Amino acid sequence: MSFPVVGGIGLLAAQVSSGSVNVAPAALLAGNTPDVTTVTDSTGKPIAYLYDQFRLPATSAQISPAMKAAIVAIEDRRFFEHGGVDPVGTVRALVNDAGGGAQQGGSTLTQQYVKNYELYVAATTDAQRQAAIAPSLARKIHEAELAVQLDNELSKDEILTRYLDIVYFGHGAYGVAAAAQVYFGTTAAQLTIPEAALLAGMVQSPTQYDPVQHPDAATARRNVVIQQMHQLGSINDADAAAATASPLGVSPTADVPDEGCTAAGDAGYFCAYVVRYLKQAGFTSEQLASGGYTVRTTLDPDALAKAKAAVDSQVPPTTPHVADVLSFVQPGQSQHRITAMVANRTYGNGPGQSSYGLPFQPENLGAGSVYKIFTAATAMEQGLIGIDSVIDVPPSGYVSPIYKDGSGHAIPVHNAEETLAPQLTLTKALAESPNTAFVKLEESTGIAPIVDMALRLGMTSLNDAVSDQPGALSIADTVKAEKQASFTLGVTPTSDLELANVDATLQSHGMWCPPTPIDSVTDENGNPVPIKEQACNQAVAPALADTLANGLSQDDGPGGTSAAAASAEDWHRPTSAKTGTTQIFQSAAFVGATPQLAGAAIVFDDSRNPRPICDGSPPSTCSSGTLFGGGAPARTFYKAANDILAGTPVVPLAAPAPEYLRGRDS
Questions:
Q1: How is residue 435 annotated by DSSP?
Q2: What CATH fold (topology level) applies to the domain 53-245?
Q3: What residue stretches are annotated with the Penicillin-binding protein transpeptidase domain (predicted)?
Q4: What's the 3-state SS for 386-404?
Q5: CB burial of residue 446 (10 Å; 0-12, 13-18, 19+)
Q6: How far from 163 is each of 1, 252, 546, CA to CA, in Å?
Q7: Which of 237, 367, 518, 542 has its CA 20 to 30 A from that of 210?
């Protein structure tokens, strides 16, 4: 249906339309709106919302008939009769607006949809947003033209659904689905007559008819809507009377959920990693904030709770300057799923919180002797030694020809223990961790192959540049170029998550996969969205990985550096494990894995001026330092892993391969 007034409007529009967003008809017909991206745990429970506008999409079938009837009754009684523009109301509005008089309304729901689309979707600047609502003749003409076009292209139900999906209802709620959740804790499909009438009445002025701040005004306005619904025959006498007598029933704390990962609580760090991971996969910040995706993650809420309890029990969140981080990854041949990632600090910007990705961003203090895993793997791959080979353990003070300071002067290497045997099998050396033995081993392997091994097994952040300066080398290339023999002692920046993935790679028979937090991503219509992830690859031979993993099995046994921690937590599972402590006790680390679960914990000073840490209840900064990887980090891992794996079968480690028991030269 068309009206003569539209022709005049079209002629005038060509002359005076200016200052508006002038949204393209094709975009308006497509009707895409900025919707909330929901991040969930592995069970589908939301942990965070990403948005610019809190809008939850709703199809026609997901909006109650009462809501549709209410908005038509109060905003556009002739909605199903006109052709997008109601001529009598439009002319009245044009005359009054042009003459500077008070706005008289007259806009149909279709016209209002056009205005809201320009305001909430097309406008990207403050000037455009002001133009979208300016009381100008040009804007009214523009709206009317597009409204007629929409009415010709879309069904009435499509227009009504789109209008209810886009309009603002106050308290940060855009669209009826968001409003239903915010005000009533329900869905748009379940809105009752009085609830629908309240929301429909708010559209005219969400502030004036705010049911939280102005309940009397909101009630009066709601009852007007109910009366209009009754007059139109949308509801009968009994329904109208019951709806008018009902209380508002609005949540006293009506508000949208906080936006972003700072609102995710204990899952905040995991959420932050999800966002980073998706951006690296090609999603933009704008897409995540408006795309309406559902991101189902690999986060196990039970594992998260137990991991968080473990870090907090060892280093309470209020402990000054001492951070405790813990990550768990599931081994696998096709995927390494992150099940939990936590820190004793809450993710956020408040006092005692941190917005730095503590469990996944590299901490600058290092992980200590955990890096000896890479030296052992390199020597075994080169055929120099096997896991049962006997290696030399020079005494403390050993001066290696390759271990030098920044000026090129040789410096002595010291061990944490002074009573070590002069020779140990590689298995025993990994458990007792003499520094001198692994620095001497570097003399045969070379430093560059060890760095490459660390990269292959999972320490991918070694590819990060050492500085922000243009042309700066990566950490890996710097270590190689400067022949930093201290690499085996774990002095480089280290990501806890990457350490966990190293052990996951060994438990996966040498198959490296990126540590993924993503189970699936779907769009607002439920369609799968493909994610660009790095492909898994065979980092080392399966036989080598199995043998090394088996050789790391004595760390929790007699003489092992984590034996006391394992005993304290009543740990009795076959485990590949390694501890690490930095030279002046500012950080210490532990990696451990069973065939079902791999994890890593790092305790470190997270202040701007790190100091040594003394282990205790809780650990604290001190002058000399007593923190070892077998202390708080190992206790953190064993407590969490014990609780997470409780009730699951005890699975043996893979058997060592004969070809890697002894080196080729033996």
A1: H
A2: Penicillin binding protein transpeptidase fold (1.10.3810)
A3: 337-598
A4: CCCCEEECCCCCEEEEEEE
A5: middle
A6: 20, 27, 61
A7: 237
For residue 353 the two structure tokens come to 């919180």
Q: Tokens in use for 655?
A: 């058997």
Express each pLDDT in 369-397 by its tens digit: 999 999 999 999 999 999 999 999 999 99
With contact defined as beta carbons under 8 Å apart, do 161 and 58 qualify?
Answer: yes
Q: How far apart are CA 267 and CA 298, in angstroms?
A: 12
Which tokens belong to 107? 């806009």
Token pair belonging to 32? 């895409």
Which string of DSSP letters, residue by residue, matches 502-564? HHHHHHTTTEE--EE-EEEEE-TTS-B-----PPPEE-S-HHHHHHHHHHTTTTTSTT-TTHH
Q: Is the peptide bond before 595 cis (omega within 30 degrees of 0)?
A: no
Q: Which superfamily does CATH assign the domain made up of 368-493 to?
A: DD-peptidase/beta-lactamase superfamily (3.40.710.10)
Instruction: Say what the alpha-carbon torsion angle 466, 493, 578, 383 is, to the nearest 10 degrees.
Output: 10
Q: Are 278 and 288 in contact (CB under 8 A)?
A: yes
Is pLDDT above 80 for 41?
A: yes
Residue 515, amino acid: P
Residue 302 has pLDDT above 60, yes or no: yes
| Total-model pTM | 0.90
Tell me which H or E stretch contains 151: helix 137-153
Domain boundaries, the chain: 53-245, 368-493
